C-alpha cells in the first residue's frame, strides 16, 4: 500500500491531486490534509461517488502550526508506520493591508512562512516516516513564478506579487537543499528520498478568484505523471510542468 499525504487536499489543486493520485496510483491510501477534518468530509464523499478507488482519509494538518504538524506525524506513524509520498500543496498569500512598511513586512513574513518555511518544516517532520517507506518521495507544489531562469529571461507575465514569486523561489532552492543533504549524508543511493518541484500552471481556484485558465485537474496532471514514474526514471531535484499536452522540465 502506498501512503500519500496531500496538504491542503480539501479544495483547489490539492483536491484535484487527491483525485488524480487516488485514481492512478495502485493500492493507495490518500491522506487528505486539511485544517479541519470537517472541511474534507464533503470532498471525500464526492470523490467516492466519482469512483476514486484509493482509500481516502482526512488528516488534520495546519502547516503554519508546529503542534498541528507534530500531531499529524503522530497520527500517520500510529496508523501507517510510514509515509511513501508527501505532497506539499497547501499555501496562501497574505497581501499587505497598505503600503505602510510595517504592513508590507508583515505580509512578506506571513507569505514566506506559508509558502516556503512551513513546507520545509513539514518535510523535515515527516522525514523519519518517509525513510521507513521503500521509496520516499516529496513533491513541492511550487510555481513557474519561482523560476529564476524564466524570470531572468522575461518569459513570465508581469506580477505585482514579488512576495509570492520570491517565496516560491525559496521553496525551489529548498528542494535542491533537501536533495543535496541526501547525497552528502546518505552513502547508499537506494536509501535516498526523491525530491521534486512542480509548477501546476495558472489554474482556476480560490487562490486567484477563479481567474486561472486551466482546470485544477490539468494542474494536478504533472504530479500524477511524477508518481507514475519508476524509481530512477526522473532525477531528484528536478522541476516539472505539464503545459499544452507536454510533460517538461522548468528551468530553476
Ligand atoms: N491556482 C494557481 O493558478 C496556482 C499556480 C501555481 C501554483 N499554485 C500553487 O498550488 C497550490 C494550491 O493552490 P490552489 O490554487 O489550489 O489554492 P486554494 O484553492 O486557495 O487552496 C489552498 C489550500 O491550501 C490550504 N491552506 C492554506 N493555508 C494553509 C495552512 N496554513 N495550513 C494548511 N492548509 C492551508 C487551504 O485550506 P483551507 O480550505 O482551510 O483554506 C486549501 O486547502 C499552492 O501551493 C499554490 O501556490 C497555484
From TrEMBL:
<dbReference type="InterPro" id="IPR051468">
    <property type="entry name" value="Fungal_SecMetab_SDRs"/>
</dbReference>
<protein>
    <submittedName>
        <fullName>Uu.00g054250.m01.CDS01</fullName>
    </submittedName>
</protein>
<comment type="similarity">
    <text>Belongs to the short-chain dehydrogenases/reductases (SDR) family.</text>
</comment>
<dbReference type="GO" id="GO:0005737">
    <property type="term" value="C:cytoplasm"/>
</dbReference>
<dbReference type="Pfam" id="PF00106">
    <property type="entry name" value="adh_short"/>
</dbReference>
<dbReference type="InterPro" id="IPR036291">
    <property type="entry name" value="NAD(P)-bd_dom_sf"/>
</dbReference>
<dbReference type="GO" id="GO:0016491">
    <property type="term" value="F:oxidoreductase activity"/>
</dbReference>
<dbReference type="InterPro" id="IPR002347">
    <property type="entry name" value="SDR_fam"/>
</dbReference>
<dbReference type="GO" id="GO:0019748">
    <property type="term" value="P:secondary metabolic process"/>
</dbReference>
Amino acid at each position: 500500500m502506498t501512503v500519500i499525504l496531500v496538504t491542503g487536499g480539501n479544495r483547489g489543486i490539492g483536491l484535484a491531486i487527491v483525485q488524480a493520485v487516488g485514481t492512478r496510483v495502485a493500492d493507495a491510501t490518500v491522506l487528505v490534509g486539511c485544517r479541519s477534518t470537517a472541511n474534507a468530509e464533503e470532498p471525500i464523499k464526492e470523490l467516492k461517488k466519482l469512483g476514486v478507488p484509493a482509500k481516502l482519509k482526512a488528516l488534520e494538518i495546519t502547516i503554519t502550526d508546529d503542534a498541528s504538524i507534530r500531531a499529524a506525524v503522530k497520527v500517520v506513524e500510529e496508523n501507517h508506520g510510514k509515509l511513501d509520498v508527501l505532497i506539499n500543496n497547501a499555501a496562501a498569500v497574505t497581501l499587505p493591508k497598505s503600503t505602510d512598511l510595517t504592513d508590507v513586512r508583515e505580509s512578506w513574513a506571513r507569505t514566506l512562512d506559508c509558502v516556503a518555511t512551513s513546507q520545509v518544516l513539514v518535510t523535515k517532520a515527516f522525514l523519519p516516516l518517509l525513510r521507513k517507506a521503500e521509496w520516499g518521495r516529496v513533491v513541492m507544489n511550487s510555481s513557474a513564478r519561482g523560476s529564476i531562469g524564466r524570470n531572468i529571461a522575461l518569459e513570465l507575465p508581469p506580477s505585482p506579487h514579488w512576495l509570492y514569486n520570491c517565496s516560491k523561489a525559496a521553496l525551489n532552492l529548498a528542494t535542491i537543499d533537501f536533495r543535496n543533504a541526501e547525497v552528502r549524508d546518505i552513502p547508499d543511493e537506494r536509501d535516498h528520498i526523491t525530491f521534486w518541484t512542480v509548477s501546476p500552471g495558472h489554474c482556476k481556484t480560490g487562490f486567484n478568484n477563479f481567474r486561472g485558465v486551466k482546470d485544477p485537474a490539468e494542474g494536478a496532471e504533472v504530479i500524477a505523471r511524477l508518481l507514475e514514474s519508476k524509481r530512477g526514471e526522473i532525477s531528484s531535484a528536478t522541476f516539472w510542468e505539464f503545459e499544452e499536452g507536454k510533460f517538461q522540465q522548468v528551468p530553476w
